[in-house]
Design brief:
Blueprint: E1 3-9, H1 18-33, E2 41-47, E3 58-68, H2 74-87, E4 98-108
Parallel strand pairs: 1-2, 3-4
Antiparallel strand pairs: 1-3
């Protein structure tokens, strides 16, 4: 039941292949934490405003949050986080002067989670 949310800076609208990233991310999640491909769900959210540091540079942010059913160990979650961080730049076109900040986190879904 991976529920995946990708937040990204508005400045990446034309430079971030969000669909391509999701389609590459799903098999990575399956391999790393033993999920089912058909269960992977990703939604992207454009952040209208992103302020990083003193806002002096042309920085951009991609943050990936992954929520899984319980049962995965901390090591598997850490491997997935590192793999996600490595994958993101492959789907963002480089731009002169831009610094891309990438972060990721993996959490267990709340026990109240239900799916229909």
């Amino acid at each position: 039941m991976p529920q995946i949310t990708v937040d990204y800076s508005a400045s990446l609208d034309e430079d971030f292949d969000r669909r391509g990233f999701a389609l590459a991310l799903h098999p990575l999640v399956v391999e790393t934490v033993d999920a089912r491909l058909a269960a992977c769900k990703t939604r992207t959210r454009r952040a209208e405003e992103t302020v990083i540091g003193d806002d002096a540079a042309d920085d951009a942010l991609v943050h990936v949050g992954i929520h899984l059913l319980t049962g995965r160990g901390d090591e598997a979650k850490a491997r997935l986080t590192e793999a996600v961080i490595a994958l993101v730049p492959e789907y963002v076109k480089p731009a002169e002067g831009r610094v891309l900040h990438v972060s990721a986190e993996v959490h267990d879904l709340d026990p109240s989670y239900r799916l229909r």
